[in-house]
Amino acid sequence: TDSVTIIRGALDFQDKVAEDAITPLDKVFMISNDIILDRKTLNEIYLCGYSRIPIYDALPLKKFSTNPILTVEASTSLVDILNSFQEGKCHMALVVKESNPIGIITLEDILEELIQEEIYDE
Ligand code: ADP
């Protein structure tokens, strides 16, 4: 990353919306709230490597439990989402389009749009 790339990312940032930066639902590691936390499941959770795992009601897939997750429309601007994340409650949001979940977005996804590069964390 260099300054020119960051400035270009910052200029484009205004026009970007949630849908431009999501991790699509089929790539999201999540678990049903009626799962049994046996050794196998705990191991899968450990191996997935993510620090936050969305939990969904078995059916229908529209109410997340545990910590309430912020929900944003696919057309919400990244600027608005960044502002919500800055309030500090949660740095992950569920992205919905026409009331259906289409993916998730985290602070890291937004920062990647700003710096125009992937961030690799451990
Ligand atoms: P973590 O804190 O778990 O490392 P980040 O918030 O840093 O996760 O996000 C890193 C990337 O992984 C982002 O692209 C984000 O959308 C994605 N991500 C975060 N949690 C999950 C999950 N449970 N399943 C799939 N992708 C995820």
Automatic annotation (TrEMBL):
Residues 64-122 form the CBS domain. This is 44588_t:CDS:1. It comes from Gigaspora margarita.
